Amino acid sequence: MLSDFPIALLGTSLLWDALGMVRHEPLWWAISFWNISLGLALALLTAAAGFVDYAAIPEGDPAVKTGTCHMAVMLSAVTVYAIALVVRRGPAAPQGSALLGTLALEALGVLLLSVGGWFGGHLVFHHGVGHD
């Protein structure tokens, strides 16, 4: 259940940036920046809880492979969003190449969150990981 917040916060950052571009209002850029910041902070807590569940999977269980894929994709997503946060350099609208870089990184982040979320759902609903 912890994963809902980082996924929602990180995943909507591209939407807020798109609104900032269309409406030319700095508020949307700031919302996106703070969504990413808070999403990354909550992702650390979520990753810690996920690692506890991952470590509890018995060796040789088919869930290990799915869990490893989930972990790798989600860590990649978090890394991409962290880089996007650095590239944008603050809550103001990114300028020049930083704008294109930020949007591209956030689009990649959404894709990775989607794939990682699928693996996470498969872990919970197919393998029963984290039910306790």
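Second entry:
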Amino acid sequence: MTWRRSALRWLPTFLGFPLGGFAAELIAGPVDGLAPALVAGAVTGVILGGVQSWAIGPHGPPAHQWLAATTTGLSLGLAVGSAAVGYGTDLADLVVQGAICGLAIGIAQAIVLRGRVAYLWAPALSALWALGWAVTTAIGIDVEAQYAVFGSSGALVVTVATATLPALLSTRAPRSAS
């Protein structure tokens, strides 16, 4: 699979964010406490992890590992991140929450990633999830509703920025000269 094709396969994962967020809202309600944060993170993580696992394809980690990592990371990250900002919804709060949540997801996913990508994944997701919340807040989405995940605008930014993951996973590291 070419880099371009691999990256294009990743782009539909954008849908995992609004679908996961909508399901989390229906099941857990607003993220305004520990229990709703854990449940909303798990619901969103299952949906997002499933879609991403499909997009990574056969060159990535086993689907069950990616799904478990995404679900665990998002559940714990949302619980810690939202509590750390007192369940606040202003721009600074959501950027901090996003950074913590992205870091937790990135660490969990990095455990199942192979190769050099794993070292960069956690800090990259931390920055990108913070950016996702900043974009969502900046365009005027009703973030006071305490959603589990940023809106479609933020999801699009994060998805495009991470679209090289499947291509990086399908590329073998160069052999060292001996």
